[in-house]
Design brief:
Elements (H helix, E strand, L loop, with lengths): L4 H86 L6 H24 L13 H10 L4 E7 L6 H21 L5 E7 L3 E8 L9 E2 L4 E2 L5 H11 L3 E6 L5 E8 L3
Parallel strand pairs: 1-2
Antiparallel strand pairs: 2-3, 3-7, 4-5, 6-7
């Protein structure tokens, strides 16, 4: 039986039209999908820009508060201590070591505050404070009458800025706590450079201070202070590990492990 040529041509034309309609529909669907993706990307960019703008506004607000509340007080301490040291020199007297330590601490505090205010007013997250300032910190601590020893082990090398800053702040806060809670205590600072992490340890022998107790499960001392809480938050933000609690021989220990790939 022979096939009717007109009917065969009609079937072929129908197939061609179907294929054409399918290709057009597929193309329209692809363009629609791309448009939806572009809208989603634009919405995400808008949300990010709004979040960044709100964050910047909050940073500026904090900068203003810090400037108004702290700059004047630190400047007064710096000026008054400088005047006292100058007057002692005019009288031919040696200025007390503690007074010189106050003057140096006020100068460094003013410098750090200016740097912090500059950071808050920009997008940079590093305030330029790191282990490069550690020798000055230890010198001020010793000048204030607190014995402290530094031990460094491992392959000393440049650290990521966040790790460098966190390590300095942990040592700074730990030594502040020693002078506050354990008068006349001796302290030991240890920096251990590993392949994957920097370990920071600050121990003290207790001195004549009151005993500090750790909160069970937290490794944090009881009391109103927030210094150790801030240290723990710094370490957690870098994905590290933190411990703070009494030492078996007496005194207190702060230990932080900071991943170098943070």
């Amino acid at each position: 039986m022979r096939t009717n040529p007109p009917r065969l041509k009609l079937h072929a034309a129908g197939w061609l039209i179907s294929v054409g309609v399918t290709l057009v529909a597929f193309r329209m669907w692809h363009l629609h999908l791309r448009e939806v993706e572009q809208r989603a990307e634009e919405a995400e960019r808008t949300r990010d820009e709004m979040a960044q703008r709100r964050a910047m506004e909050e940073r500026l607000r904090i900068a203003r508060e810090l400037h108004d509340s702290l700059t004047h007080s630190i400047s007064v301490i710096q000026v008054q201590s400088g005047v006292a040291v100058h007057l002692a020199g005019k009288r031919g007297e040696e200025a007390p070591t503690a007074l010189k330590a106050i003057q140096e601490a006020a100068t460094d505090a003013a410098r750090e505050l200016r740097a912090t205010l500059g950071v808050l007013r920009t997008a940079d997250d590093c305030d330029g404070t790191g282990l490069g300032q550690l020798d000055k910190l230890l010198a001020r601590t010793r000048a204030a009458g607190q014995p402290v020893t530094l031990t460094v082990s491992g392959d000393v090398r440049e650290l990521p800025s966040e790790v460098d800053q966190a390590a300095y702040r942990i040592v700074q806060e730990a030594l502040t706590n020693v002078s506050r809670h354990a008068s006349q205590a001796s302290a030991w600072v240890r920096l251990s450079y590993g392949n994957a992490a920097l370990t920071v340890e600050v121990d003290d022998d207790g001195g004549n201070g009151t005993a500090r107790q750790a909160v069970p499960g937290e490794g944090l001392p009881s009391g109103p202070g927030l210094g150790l809480v801030g240290m723990r938050e710094r370490v957690a933000a870098l994905g590290g590990r933190f411990y703070a609690g009494p030492r078996a021989p007496g005194g207190f220990r702060v230990c932080a492990e900071l991943p170098l790939g943070a």
